[in-house]
């Protein structure tokens, strides 16, 4: 990454996921990066998005300054429930689960890790949203809980960016769409469609991050750098 000083520190939340693992690998190989720390439910320290104390503890253990924080956590479906094709398929339990992981969880990452972004230097908090979370871009309907949870995440990014800019003039907070990527998350829905390799998606997203300026904080970008309507 060229936009950070030599020896910068990075944290990847969701480093065990398809895209998160690729972020971790690329930053491991970046000679400019001093340290990269991966976080998930199976790392040390670990984070569980459903347990705020684990996030607070991880932030405290990592401490110091974090120049680049990438949140690559997220959830779409499992054997219990898949994305809804109609309003009839909505259940409060599943909707609450998606909001907890895709919106509240990242909000808690913002709460505990934005304070670690440098006060006087460049600092990035990027979170993986999804184009289907765009209200302006929704022409197909369906996937109600996932779409709404990502729209909520986008709003949290926007609000946090305004708040962070008061104390961290060079901070950039951004929501990113990685494209359709070959990972376990997309497997049940896009296995027959062209998908980006995780390494390719992560490299493109890091290039987008590298180019973002503080005046672009609170924005929503795709992996090719284009801005996505809210
Ligand atoms: N793949 C795509 O085509 C695509 C498209 C658009 C947007 N996205 C977004 O990109 C992000 C990453 O997706 P992916 O495809 O890489 O997914 P993935 O392979 O399923 O990885 C998901 C990651 O989220 C973590 N996670 C899930 N629940 C958690 C919890 N309760 N606490 C802590 N960590 C938790 C997992 O960690 P554990 O190891 O602890 O389970 C894992 O590291 C998601 O936000 C997704 O919505 C993906």
Span from first to last CA?
27 Å
Q: Compute the CA-based radius of gyration.
A: 17 Å
Output mean pLDDT. 98
Biggest sheet, in brief? 6 strands, parallel
Q: What general outline do the C-alpha atoms trace?
A: globular
How many beta strands in the DSSP annotation?
6
What is the structural class?
alpha/beta
CATH class: Alpha Beta
What CATH architecture would you give? 3-Layer(aba) Sandwich
**Small-molecule binders:** NADP nicotinamide-adenine-dinucleotide phosphate
Number of helical segments with 4 or more residues: 6
How much helix, percentage-wise, in residues? 25-40%
Strand order of the largest sheet: 2-1-3-4-5-6
Indicate the proportion of strand residues.
5-15%
What is the H/E string?
A: EHEHEHEHEHHE
Count of distinct structural domains: 1
CATH superfamily grouping: NAD(P)-binding Rossmann-like Domain
CATH structural fold name: Rossmann fold
Low-confidence stretches: none
């Amino acid at each position: 990454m060229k936009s950070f000083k030599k020896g910068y520190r990075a944290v990847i939340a969701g480093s065990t996921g398809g895209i998160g693992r690729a972020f971790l690998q690329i930053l491991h190989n970046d000679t400019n990066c001093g340290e990269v720390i991966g976080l998930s439910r199976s790392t040390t320290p670990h984070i569980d998005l459903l347990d705020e104390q684990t996030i607070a503890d991880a932030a405290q253990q990592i401490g110091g300054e974090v120049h680049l924080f990438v949140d690559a956590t997220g959830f779409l479906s499992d054997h219990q429930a898949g994305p809804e094709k109609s309003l009839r398929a909505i259940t409060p339990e599943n909707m609450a689960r998606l909001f907890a992981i895709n919106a509240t969880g990242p909000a808690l990452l913002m709460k505990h890790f934005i304070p670690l972004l440098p006060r006087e230097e460049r600092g990035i908090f990027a979170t993986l949203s999804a184009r289907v979370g765009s209200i302006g871009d929704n022409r197909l309907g369906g996937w109600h809980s996932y779409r709404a949870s990502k729209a909520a995440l986008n709003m949290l990014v926007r609000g946090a960016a305004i708040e962070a800019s008061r104390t961290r003039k060079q901070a950039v907070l951004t929501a990113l769409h990685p494209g359709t990527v070959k990972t376990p998350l997309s497997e049940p829905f896009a296995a027959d469609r062209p998908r980006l390799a995780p390494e390719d998606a992560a490299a493109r997203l890091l290039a987008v991050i590298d180019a973002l300026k503080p005046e672009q904080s609170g924005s929503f970008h795709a992996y090719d750098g284009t801005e996505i309507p809210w």
